[in-house]
Design brief:
The protein is 35% helix and 0% strand. The chain is built from 1 helix and no strands.
């Protein structure tokens, strides 16, 4: 449901004929441009080569250790 239009003769700030005097309405846009503080640098996406190599080395050492434990139990 919509509200009815206000009575033009009783609306504050209107000139005769329905115009609005200067300064009665706020400006369309602010006068400040730009950002207020510097943006943080973008984070890199994805893994680098070094972390992947380190993970693979740790997995290989654990696998070698487990295989050595199995061989020691069997022998």
């Amino acid at each position: 449901m919509t509200t009815p239009d206000p009575e033009p003769r009783r609306s504050p700030g209107l000139e005769p004929g329905g115009g609005v005097p200067p300064g009665e309405t706020p400006p369309a846009e602010g006068g400040i441009s730009g950002i207020s503080h510097p943006e943080p640098p973008e984070l890199r996406k994805g893994w680098g080569a070094m972390p992947l190599v380190l993970i693979m080395v740790v997995v290989a050492l654990i696998a070698i250790g487990l295989i050595a434990m199995v061989v020691a139990l069997i022998a």
